[in-house]
Amino acid sequence: MKQSYECKLLLKTELCSGIYDYVLHAPEIARQAQIGQFVHIDCGGRTTLRRPISICDVGEDFLRFAFQVKGEGTRELAKRQVDEYIDILGPLGNGFKTTDGEKAVVIGGGIGVFPLLRLARRPDTAVFLGFRTKSLVVMEDDFIEANKNVTICTDDGSYGYDGFAVAAMGEYLLDNKVDMIYCCGPTPMLRTVKQIAEFRKIPCQLSLEQRMGCGIGACLTCVCETKDTGMSKYKQVCSSGPVFDSKEVVL
Fold it and tell me: What is the pTM of this model?
């Protein structure tokens, strides 16, 4: 059973309207966290259920995550102030499985870019980040600091590559052989990346987003459909994922 920790909020930044970046003192979680795992957060206020949020980054003694205000829980979380303590359970779930020496593509969209920062630091990695418009581009400097081969894409062409990140990735794949694709983003992006990867016979790992209850596999709130049959057809994203092999899940 994972333990919860009282973690002190060290730094709070509003990246753009309604999207916040938190850095907390959390040495116990930082020591354990694998790329792609998440934490389950007591947001405070009148909310009773914790909220799952992907781990963006860790250091020797800090935990970093970013989130968008979408409902009551994240609204309460956004009210927390520097030097307050936040109850955090984690790290939880199964993250990305990486291999030394692989040539990879990392692709994310919107708030799905946050858990990909640590992957971007790996050598021989090309990064494609998609946003709806220029005003929603976040963490560009962090990714460029992590990796010099970063392509920022906007759906409306207002900044960077004019078009979807999957289109930019597709152009890259025409001239570059890769061993793995890592993806986190909205379902349409995951579905398209899955199709491209399977067409080109490139192994691919997808990080899924689902509403969660317990976060530890004790309820059935966050099930996703897989290609297994029988009792194994539906799996819990919190405990079996959030990262799955693209060939395993049905999108």
Answer: 0.94
